[in-house]
Design a protein that fits this description.
globular; alpha/beta; 6-stranded mixed β-sheet; 32% helix; single chain
Length: 168
């Protein structure tokens, strides 16, 4: 989605040496259109990027999208874009392929048209997998956010434009 990538040219303009880790499918599109940023790396498989940063890769069955995983002392933080592959699948990749147990999920979960029953099942699966905190945003949908808030209780973090979340 353009709302997740429109800032890339601006970032490159102010910092031309920045390294961009792009989902392989998106990198292919940018290359074909002549817009591939310099200093970019295509990421298809789950991999270590730099320091505490990892990518889930974009090799999901349902949809090609990568998640950013930040390894911390208390567990991993998964940051999604829209979560099209399914947040449970993304958490599973972090755990099984990267060896990082996810503690916190932040980002869009693409659940706006998902039934409350299914959202409750997704929340239960995440909690069973060890997720303690969740900050669902934009494309999660208001009804799904309410169901997640009810399920996670104090582990729910309200998101939104301008929300500052400190990851240590």
């Amino acid at each position: 989605h353009g709302d997740h990538t429109a800032g890339i040219p601006w970032i490159i303009e102010i910092n031309p040496s920045v390294l961009c880790y792009l989902p392989a499918s998106y990198a292919e599109q940018l290359k074909a259109s002549g817009l591939l940023p310099p200093n970019s790396k295509s990421v298809k498989k789950p991999s270590h990027l730099y320091g505490p940063f990892y990518s889930t890769g974009d090799d999901f069955v349902a949809f090609r999208e990568q998640g950013l995983v930040i390894k911390t002392d208390y567990g991993g933080v998964l940051i999604t874009g829209c979560g099209h592959p399914g947040v449970v699948a993304m958490v599973r990749v972090a755990e099984k392929e990267l060896g990082i147990k996810i503690h916190t999920v932040i980002g869009g979960l693409h659940l706006m048209s998902t039934s409350e029953e299914d959202v409750e099942l997704i929340a239960a699966n995440l909690k069973e997998m060890g997720v303690k905190q969740i900050c669902p945003t934009h494309c999660t949908g208001d009804k799904s956010i309410a169901a997640i808030k009810a399920s996670f209780g104090d582990g729910y973090i309200m998101g939104g434009t301008g929300k500052e979340i400190i990851i240590q």
